[in-house]
Structures
1.
Amino acid sequence: MSEPTTPGLAGTGHNAAAELLALYRSLVLIRRCEERLSTMFADGEVPGFIHLSIGQEAVSAGVMAALTPEDTIASTHRGHGHAIAKGLSLDGFFAELLARDTGLCRGRGGSMHVADMSVGMLGANGIVGAGLSIALGSALAHRTLKNGAIAVAFFGDGALAEGLMHECLNMAALWKLPLLFVCENNGWGEFLPTSKQLSFTLKDLAAAYGIPHVAIDGNDVAVVAAHAARIAAEVRSEGPRVLECLTTRVRGHFEGDAQKYRDPDELAALSERDPLHVAASRLAAMGVGETALSEITTEIAARIEAAVAAARAAPAPLFEAAMADVYTGAQPVQGGV
């Protein structure tokens, strides 16, 4: 893969600090939401599996800062960060993960299928790489409608060996679709390093289809935001691009995974690349004090607890209502059989 490059934020002085502080707020919101989900999952409140993106928040916050409300995204099984950064309602988000009728999908999608079309979130997906084709279709729709919007396909490095990956790269390049491919490269495909699963790199793959590729430090939200802003503009005017964000998976493949297959020394060193720590250090160098960061954390904690309380109090979905959205009503055959 390419060596990551490190530009700064677009603004300077006070503007740069304000931009980074807004990004830091997004990082904290994602982190605290997932930490809260972790405790609720351990207590048996969240049905099914959840896959946390702790350590990867800078990708979600940085990329989403470059998008408009009309832009669309297709996510992965590890998609809470994407959903939250795109602007999903916290009340609807927590209600969905607790399988409540007030959830964004009325409790039927859960963690791996949460979606909200009103903010351009086309959905998370439990199938590795499946969001790629959804984003491709959305990009084709944007081009057909000539609305100036782009689609973003998020995927992990574990999806690179999927045949669908190759098909979508080819079609996006062939039709010059406004599609941004964002790889969250955390170095793992489930329980095995991707270096032991792939004989090629994403840079090589993108080059094979003639799509420009750049690899960046995916744990520095300022770097991600700066690159995403530039590349999103290119996608709008020129066609597909590949953005590879080199990041860190702190938790296991799924919540509850003991990660016995990972080197304890590697896990112990992960805090040095924590996106929140990196952003806080940048802010301190810009003169932003600890008080401002603490106020953000306190405010977000209160918002999350309010959303959790509302979700807990919400009713469960009715089985009959769920069935009504799956099957159409039976119609009698004219003339009989």
2.
Amino acid sequence: MASELENSIRSAAAKVAAYVADAAVMEVTTSYVVVGPVASAETPRPAAKTIIRLDGDCEATVPMREGPGGMLEVDSGLFEIHQANVATATEYRARVLGALIGLLQRR
């Protein structure tokens, strides 16, 4: 019986360790597909991407389009969707890490 408990604890600890290692980098990619009257099996293409590292470093790729006179401008609609995706992912990660810390503090 004790060995089953030890195995369960080891398994849970390994899963927590893997999650913590994975939590070092959070990547959010917002993709798009072109829709129209003819259905297509088009592969989604990335429109925006944000990478946030545990040490606070951040990398962002934003959707741009060519505007009047060849000037580049941010595609604000896609960028707003992406910002909402990043905020949701950040909030979720904070809740999960908070729950893990709470579990560790009880021990």
3.
Amino acid sequence: MTTTKTATTKTATTKTATAGLAAAVGLSLGLAGCAATDPAAPDGTVTLTYWMWDANQVPGYQQCANDFEAANPGVRINIEQYGWDDYWTQLTARMVAESAPDVFVDHSQQFGKFAELDQILDVSDRVAGSGIDLARYEDGLVDLWRGQDGGLYGLPKDWDTVGLYYNADMLAEAGYTGEDLWELEWNTEDGGTFEEFVAHMSVDHNGVRGDEPGFDKENVEVYGLGYNESGGGYGQVQWAPFALSNGWTYSDRNPWPTGFNYDDPALVETIGWYRSLIDKGYMPSLAVATSGIGSQEALGAGAYASLIEGSWNARSISELAGADFQVAPTPVGPSGERGTVFNGLSDAIYAGTPHPDEAWAWVEHLASPGCQLQVAEEGRVFPAVKEASDQAVKTFTELGVDAEAFSVHVAEGTATPSPVTDRWAQLQTIMQPTMDSVLSFQTEPESLVPANRRVDELLDE
């Protein structure tokens, strides 16, 4: 059985929970918060509650649940889906109330705190006992779930990179081809052919393009490049592809860094260039970007000609009505390589589950080639198992999505693992307002230097 709470896809945007949401959390805890502490039914059947946030992926995982139940007649899987913001608010509340779901989809930015607070199980011994070959997963994914104690706190579920989505109809009108976008390069001095591209794709209210005389940057009808928010200290679908291809790295080591590199000149100059696209009218102001209209909606409405977004949204963007939407890889930077964050999700087991053996059996099934091949055929994400990942590329290609725009990073080794720390929430209280201030032209990119000192002080506490 699947319960849908909110049909919201994954995003790194953090929003403030409303009073209504808080009330909903309280109601949920009062009426439905005992799923993870209920004993088995009188007939001996065990019901496991499984949480996920992406509504688009529910059908594939429901089929996995059906297959698992057929092979394990004494266990039932109850899938509950919440939207991204609601998901973490609810999960945190359930952890505090000691009534979290038996198994839940975990994110690399969140897992550190759960592991440090002993709220999720170390599955190292179970993995060793099961004989699972961890080499079957894409390189680097398993390490995202290693705790500071060396334990393994989940099995890889999928992986993601980002790409440059674009309106193919606008592209053709502007004289570009999809192949041209594979050749784009950028630099911090003049922006390279990538800035030439976003300038030409920008159009003002008089139909003048951004690279033509008389372009009115104060009255832009189509922005060459869109975005959703400043990206805080992560910037996965904003500035990170540029910073990473400029030789920058998030921290001194990963996972569990002892210091971050937000004061690195490579990042400071990248943000300065990135912000200049706003000043030139090729990207919207931060106020416009965060006005309440989503970046994908703006792309679909023709307000953005291109957009950096994650592979997890490839299917939904390709299905936007009104135009043909395609994707290319991120541009090559001064380092001579492309850049992207390489992230993945896992399935974690709540430490307080009364059914740890059944929960592990479900996690083992979720991470198996059988389930992941089923998910691959849905064409929503790239599963972590290598053979399933290959199948997903084929599925996306059949759907008209150029999946190589994402997999090229894996093939060429140009993907940077997502930073893992148990202080991510606190770090963002520093970096989100700092990056907001820079992109809204209230402070200069050099303000990243003192912000980094505060971040490193936070890690020393």
